[in-house]
Write a structure and sequence with these properties.
Blueprint: E1 2-8, E2 12-19, E3 24-25, E4 30-33, H1 40-54, E5 60-64, E6 68-69, E7 72-73, H2 88-95, E8 101-105, H3 106-117, E9 131-137, E10 141-147, E11 150-152, E12 161-162, E13 165-166, H4 168-171, H5 173-179, H6 183-201, E14 205-209, E15 229-231, H7 238-250
Parallel strand pairs: 1-5, 5-8, 9-14, 14-15
Antiparallel strand pairs: 1-2, 2-3, 2-4, 6-7, 9-10, 10-11, 12-13
Helix pairs in contact: 1-2, 3-7
Length: 261
């Protein structure tokens, strides 16, 4: 099945058509800078541009950087505060011209993709007893937790307290960039964070995602966790692929297309 996946991030909004049976892109990826301020209307305009670009008429899956329950946005730490309490499903469907949509947390989307097609695939097989934690390091820190292959949604463990504040304000990839930290300095911060996670959850595997995963050899060898830590195989494609997977399995039947915005 082909589904348009859209990954909404703090710095960029990315979309591609995905073959959900194989977890591969069927089109080139389109990336548009996230508007500032990233209000619902401004982001909806970008969504409209992406849907128009692909001339898309099927289901759409959205990966959103915050807690999403039954389509409603409950947190939006790296976007505008006006997202909180909004019916994201209704907003994105309207932006997509009335197409059926599914919205889920962005780290959950990335984790679903890695469990289906990437680094967590073996641990996600039916009947295998395991706990896998996906950690995305980017503008913030996102997490997805899987037990026996099943997602525990909206864990948002990037907001655990570390040194008196949110862990993501201390160890996200954006912090390494803005503070000019050397790899060794940043790896020590990531190590602190991961040790908290493993002491809470005792996972069998930790998968590191986000754009920094393509430079995994710079920091993974410096980590001291007892849990195996591996880079995501799908890298920055994971959010789009996971969003599309959600759209394929959860979206209602195709509706009649409304006139585009």
């Amino acid at each position: 099945m082909k589904v348009l996946g859209i990954d909404i991030g703090g710095t960029g909004i990315k979309g591609a058509v995905v073959d959900t049976s194989r977890g591969v892109f069927k089109t080139d990826r389109l990336r548009i800078l996230t508007p500032h301020p990233a209000t619902p209307d401004a982001v909806a305009d970008v969504v409209d541009r992406i849907v128009r670009h692909f001339d898309w008429e099927g289901p759409v899956g959205f990966a959103f950087p915050g807690v999403v329950k039954h389509g409603t946005i409950h947190t939006a730490a790296n976007l505008d505060a006006t997202w909180v309490g909004l019916d994201g499903g209704a907003l994105f469907s309207a932006a997509a011209g009335g197409l059926p949509v599914t919205v889920l947390n962005d780290a959950d989307a990335a984790g679903r993709a890695e469990m289906a097609f990437g680094a967590g695939k073996e641990h996600g097989k039916p009947g295998r007893s395991s706990v896998v934690v996906m950690v995305t390091l980017g503008t913030g820190i996102g997490t997805a937790v899987f037990t026996n292959g099943q997602l525990v949604p909206n864990t948002e463990l990037g907001h655990l307290e570390l040194h008196g504040g949110d862990a993501e304000r201390y160890a996200a990839e954006s912090v390494r960039e803005t503070q000019g930290l050397r790899w060794e300095e940043w790896a020590a911060r990531v190590d602190e964070y991961l040790r908290i996670l493993e002491n809470l959850l005792w996972p069998d595997l930790i998968v590191i995602g986000g754009g920094v995963s393509k430079q995994a050899d710079q920091f993974l060898p410096l980590l001291t966790t007892r849990t195996p830590v591996v880079p995501a195989r799908l890298r920055n494609r994971a959010g789009i692929i996971g969003a599309a997977l959600a759209g394929a399995t959860m979206a209602p039947p195709k509706q009649k297309r409304l006139r585009k915005r």
